[in-house]
């Protein structure tokens, strides 16, 4: 029996030992899905706090319930460690580490490189490795393959593939298990082995011809969203100048049952994917002397939205005889999307930072995020304890994240002035002259 046949047999019978490197929003849910499918799973992460929490059965990721995690830990199906040497006993390894952008706009590969360096110490025949971290086309072949495959032949002795993560935090209809997984191998055999592994836990695995095709598919998904959000953000700016209600226009267009997909404007992009992923592609194409014009333009529009929000807020205050400098401003919601506790790349941080720069007295409230820290500008804030008291005292309330727990009718009725970037105030905004929508 060949190495490939032996490994596929192990994977299909779920006798393979599985490791997940990186236990964040992507890694922990994946580890749980593999464990629930019957694999013996070891999570590896340098963060001691995460390891201790997992081994106690305590989840720090909203999408993973502590009861489910605790049962898997108790049954011996899932454990966690900071010790990378456990990888020498593993048959299958999934890499789920962050891939942020540097301030200069180029990809920060340090987490992938660090994970690969550790894994390379324990590589052996009969191992399959799948990279899930979103990155530019070519990363799996150009970066991981040389680090991991110096002694054994890929596609024969060991197997390497890319499968982009498709996590949407807070979503309940599509989860790690039932969201189709794209899988692309370095070789045909790599794709076969990796698919055999993931098919044991994921409902649908869609194979493509190469790792590069899988990497590109992920970037297309998020570039599509980024560009369309940029389009409606620019539409919002145009509608304001034309004196047209952008929300009415979008609802009208969305009544068409074909040929249109609804996107809505907002204060800017947030999260771990949409603001960042398309820029990987734009950066990569520069090495081919190609300018990704749609990406660059959409990024410019989306990046400028926090500044546009602040300028509209200044106009709104001015119309009410007040200056932004010295005004008390309450920002409602700092998570990058409703009903989650994730503040990564949230436009709320830029909105707050700009308001502070212009001399506003800024407070914020978010039931999911009690503290925020802006790394580059080095400021720290705590969520106000009595939201309605702050609403009543504020010269302006800025709705940045439309959490479902907020009673927006009560907020509008209790406020002096509301600037709504999400259309959260909806129909009753028209009934109140103290509400201005994006």
- The count of strands amounts to 15
Classify the fold: give the CATH topology of the largest domain: Rossmann fold
Q: Major sheet, described briefly?
A: 8 strands, mixed
Trace the largest sheet across and list its strands. Answer: 3-2-1-4-5-6-7-8
Classified by CATH, the class of the largest domain is: Alpha Beta
As for the number of domains, it is 2
How far apart, in Å, are the first and last alpha carbons? 64 Å
Instruction: Find the CATH superfamily of the largest domain.
Output: NAD(P)-binding Rossmann-like Domain
Helix % is 25-40%
Question: Overall 3D geometry?
Answer: elongated
By secondary-structure content and strand pairing, the structural class works out as alpha/beta
Mean pLDDT: 93
**Continuous helix count:** 14
Q: Specify Rg, calculated over alpha carbons.
A: 24 Å
CATH architecture of the largest domain: 3-Layer(aba) Sandwich
Helix and strand run: HEHEHHEEHEHEEHEHHHHEHEEEHEHEE
Verbal overview:
This protein has 438 residues and is of the alpha/beta class. The chain folds into two domains: 3-209, Rossmann fold, CATH 3.40.50.720; 222-437, Rossmann fold. Helix content is 39%, strand content 15%. The chain contains 14 helices and 15 strands. The chain has helices spanning 3-13, 27-36, 48-55, 66-74, 110-120, 139-148, 188-198, 211-242, 246-254, 277-286, 293-319, 347-357, 387-393, 408-414, and strands at 17-21, 40-44, 78-81, 92-95, 127-131, 158-162, 181-185, 205-208, 328-332, 361-365, 371-374, 379-382, 396-399, 418-420, 435-437. It has an eight-stranded mixed β-sheet, sandwiched between helices. It has a five-stranded parallel β-sheet with strand order 10-9-13-14-15, sandwiched between helices. Helix 7 (188-198) links the parallel strand 7 (181-185) and strand 8 (205-208). Helix 8 (211-242) packs parallel to helix 11 (293-319). It is elongated and about 80 Å long. The N and C termini lie far apart (64 Å).
């Amino acid at each position: 029996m060949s190495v490939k046949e032996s490994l596929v047999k192990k994977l299909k019978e779920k006798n393979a030992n599985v490791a997940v490197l990186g236990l964040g929003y992507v890694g922990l849910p994946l580890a749980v899905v593999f464990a629930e499918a019957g694999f013996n799973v070891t999570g590896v992460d340098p963060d001691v706090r995460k390891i201790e929490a997992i081994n106690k059965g305590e989840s720090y990721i909203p999408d993973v319930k502590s009861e489910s995690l605790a049962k898997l830990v108790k049954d011996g199906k899932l454990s966690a460690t900071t010790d990378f040497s456990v990888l020498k006993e593993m048959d299958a390894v999934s890499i789920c580490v962050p891939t942020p952008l540097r301030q200069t706009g180029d990809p920060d590969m340090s987490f992938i490189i660090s994970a690969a360096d550790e894994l390379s110490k324990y590589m052996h025949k009969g191992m399959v490795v799948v990279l899930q971290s979103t990155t530019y086309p070519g990363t799996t072949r150009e970066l991981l393959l040389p680090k991991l495959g110096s002694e054994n032949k890929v596609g024969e002795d060991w197997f390497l593939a890319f499968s982009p993560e498709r996590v949407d935090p807070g979503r309940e209809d599509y989860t790690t298990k039932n969201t189709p997984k794209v899988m692309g191998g370095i070789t045909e055999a790599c794709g076969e082995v990796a698919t055999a592994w993931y098919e044991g836990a994921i409902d649908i695995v869609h194979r493509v011809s190469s790792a590069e095709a899988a990497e590109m598919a992920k970037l297309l998904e998020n570039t599509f969203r980024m560009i369309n959000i940029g389009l409606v953000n620019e539409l919002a700016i145009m509608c304001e100048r034309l004196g047209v209600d952008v929300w009415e226009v979008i609802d009208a267009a969305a009544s068409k049952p074909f040929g249109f997909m609804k996107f809505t404007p907002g204060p800017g992009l947030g999260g771990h994917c949409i603001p960042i992923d398309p820029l990987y592609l734009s950066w990569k194409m520069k090495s081919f002397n190609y300018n990704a014009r749609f990406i660059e333009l959409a990024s410019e529009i989306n990046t400028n939205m926090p500044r546009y929000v602040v300028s509209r807020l200044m106009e709104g205050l001015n119309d009410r005889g007040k200056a932004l400098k010295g005004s008390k401003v309450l920002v409602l919601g700092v998570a990058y999307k409703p009903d989650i506790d994730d503040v990564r790349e949230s436009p709320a941080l830029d909105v707050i930072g700009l308001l502070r720069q212009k001399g506003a007295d800024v407070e914020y409230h978010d039931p999911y995020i009690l503290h925020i820290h802006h790394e580059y500008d080095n400021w720290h804030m705590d969520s106000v304890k009595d939201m309605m008291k702050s609403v009543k005292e504020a010269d302006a309330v800025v709705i940045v994240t439309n959490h479902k727990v907020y009673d927006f009718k009560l907020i509008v009725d209790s406020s002096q002035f509301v600037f709504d970037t999400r259309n959260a105030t909806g129909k009753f905004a028209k009934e109140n002259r103290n509400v201005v929508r994006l």
